[in-house]
Every structure is written in structure tokens, then in C-alpha cells.
Amino acid sequence: MHDLPVAVLSMKRGTHAAARAIALTVADDTGRLIASLVPVGRWALGDASLIEQVCAWRARNMRMFLTQFASSADSTRNYLERLAIGDPRRLLFIIEGPDSVALGHIGLIELSRTSAEIDNVMRGDAPVPPRLMYLAQRRLLQWCFDALRLDYCTIRVLSYNSHAIDLYIRLGFSPRGKIHLFRDETNGLITHKPCAPQQSNVDYWCDELVIQRPVDTTQQQRLPSPLS
């Protein structure tokens, strides 16, 4: 675990109350609290309603993922236990409103002392405040740069997800490269693997974007949401 930021190691709490106590607050541009990023820990495994919600969100947006399958409550719970909680290089946050209603989720993977990849960005079905996903991602990036002191963050997104790409550009991400894909479907499981351009069998690709930590996060370059 020596290559992980110390702040990450204690985030996965056993109870929802303990997780909410260390949640990252999300404010709008007037400073009004609109949501919290609540880190997922073992508390989530006992929340059947949350598992059903996460399952439904994934099913509704399945084509936006590199790995596509028939989502179920069991597969969702297994993902949470084995990866979101079990993998020390991952963090998943439930985006909760002030009334604790789940509004979506957002995560980090491939965490190290220098970098992380933004992952699993998902808006749920409940009505959400204006610009929620933009503000939630801005808040997570600020935490990555100011609290974890990461040098940079990346994100990968399928090229046909133009709405997401536009959002990431507005957040300050820059194109880093194009990843050509080989699509495979076996027993209902669809996977996309990186490949050479001439080996690609689909007419889309994966765009990788990157954002660097501002040179001086105490000055005007600083991401504008305050740390909680």
C-alpha cells in the first residue's frame, strides 16, 4: 500500500454514518451545499435499495462502458465488494443529496501517489440540481489535487459519448490520445480491448483525456470549490 496516498486508505468505512462524516461536500457557485460525495465501504453491501439503484443506472447506460453485460443485483453487489471496496487502488463515491437520496456515483481507479483515473461517472434517475455532475467532478478533482496532491488525473470515454467529452473539456481536461478497440462478444459479455489501428473491428474508439494539477492551487488557477 506504500504507493497509495495515506488519505485514501481509511476512506472505506463500515457504516453509512461514518462514511457521511468524511464525505466531500459539493457546493454550487454561490457556495450553497447541493450534494456530498460519500465513499463506498462495506456499509453499501447491506443497502439493498442502493444496490438496485446502482444496478439500474448501469443497465440504463451500459453502452457507455467498455465492458457490457446483463446487470443484476448480484453482479452489482459482487462489483462493489470485490472491486469498489476490495481493490485498494479504487474509490467509489455515491453522490447524495442533502436528504441522503442517491443521485449518482463517481469513482477513481488506478490510484497511486502521483495519479488516478476518473471512472464510473453516472447520474441517477432522481431529479438533480443544475450542473450536478460538473460540480461533483470539479469537487473530486479538487480533492485529488489539493488533498491527495496528485500530479494529474486521466479519464477514458468512448468516442460516441460526445456529451461526456464536452463536459470533461469544460472541466479543463485536454485530449491525450486515441485508443483503438477490438470488440469481442462471448456468452453475452461484451469487452473492448486496446489494439493496433489496423486490428480494430469497430468504427469508434476510446478517447483518453488528462488534466494536470494547477501549478499553484492557492491562486486563481485553483479549482473553485472549497475543501470541506
UniProtKB/TrEMBL annotation:
<dbReference type="Pfam" id="PF13302">
    <property type="entry name" value="Acetyltransf_3"/>
</dbReference>
<dbReference type="InterPro" id="IPR000182">
    <property type="entry name" value="GNAT_dom"/>
</dbReference>
<dbReference type="InterPro" id="IPR016181">
    <property type="entry name" value="Acyl_CoA_acyltransferase"/>
</dbReference>
<dbReference type="GO" id="GO:0016747">
    <property type="term" value="F:acyltransferase activity, transferring groups other than amino-acyl groups"/>
</dbReference>
<protein>
    <recommendedName>
        <fullName>N-acetyltransferase domain-containing protein</fullName>
    </recommendedName>
</protein>
<feature type="domain" description="N-acetyltransferase">
    <location>
        <begin position="52"/>
        <end position="173"/>
    </location>
</feature>
